[in-house]
Specification:
This protein is mainly α. It contains 3 helices and no strands. Helix 1 (about 10-40) runs antiparallel to helix 2.
Length: about 80
């Protein structure tokens, strides 16, 4: 009789791949925001209003303060058992 042992390797690999794709997309968006902000700051023809909007966009999305408990909650720290 063969023991019924489940192999979660495929599931874990797919979960890892999805996480990597998500991080890749988010980093691309962040890079585009930074490049847009840098372009706005270097170009004198760009209006002051656009420069202020670009600076606010970068500060709100990339440089905003997030409490530790929010990060832990989003990562599922409180829902999963600890694997130490």
């Amino acid at each position: 009789m063969t023991p019924d042992i489940r192999n979660n390797q495929d599931h874990l690999a797919e979960e890892f791949r999805q996480s990597e794709n998500y991080l890749l997309q988010e980093s691309r968006i962040a890079l585009l925001k930074i490049q847009s902000w840098q372009f706005a700051m270097r170009t004198p023809e760009v209006g002051l209003h656009y420069q202020q909007e670009a600076a606010a966009m970068v500060k709100q999305s990339l440089l905003s303060f997030v409490p530790n408990s929010f990060v832990l909650n989003e990562e599922g720290f409180y829902y999963k058992p600890l694997d130490n």
